[in-house]
Amino acid sequence: MSEERLRALVDSPGTVADALAFFDSLEAVEPEAMIGEWDGGLVPTGHPGEGMLDNLRWQGKAFRGADDVDPMVCSDDGGERAASDVMGSATLRRVEYRGVSTATMVYDQHPVFDHFRRVDGDTVIGAMDRKGEDAPLVFFLRRRP
Questions:
Q1: Model confidence over 108-139: pLDDT tens digits?
Q2: Which ranges constitute the DSSP H helices of 43-139?
Q3: Which residues, given as ranges, of the chain have pLDDT below 50?
Q4: pTM of the model as a whole
Q5: Residue 56 contacts by C-beta under 8 Å, 6 or more apart in sequence?
Q6: Is 35 left (phi over 0), alpha (psi -120 to 50) or beta?
Q7: What 3-state class would DSSP assign to 128?
Q8: Domain residue ranges in the chain
Q9: Which class does domain 2-143 fall in?
């Protein structure tokens, strides 16, 4: 059911309010559950960061440990997955967001937090909360096999 709702949000661009209503309906994620390699995609809401991620050829994220996170894994010129230094490095912590304490990726060099909620065992939805912005960028991650 949750996967179907995510697919509908991805296939039919909507509002941030629609995406956050779905986000708020989901359970928290334990930080340890984020360890691994993830493919990413956008939940289109018209956020200006969506174009930036497309231009960077964003592919996902890599969590090797609580203090060892590549927040931006992109396609390199050869089409291979590679960590991008555009946003630097990050850490993984539990942070309260929208009333729920959940796994959150904290960018080390920027006032940015990516908060996660569980869609299913291998899929999470994220809300990128950046200081000074009115609305988060919404995205999803699927665990790589």
A1: 999 999 999 999 999 999 999 999 999 999 99
A2: 49-56
A3: none
A4: 0.96
A5: 72, 74, 84, 86
A6: beta
A7: strand
A8: 2-143
A9: mainly beta
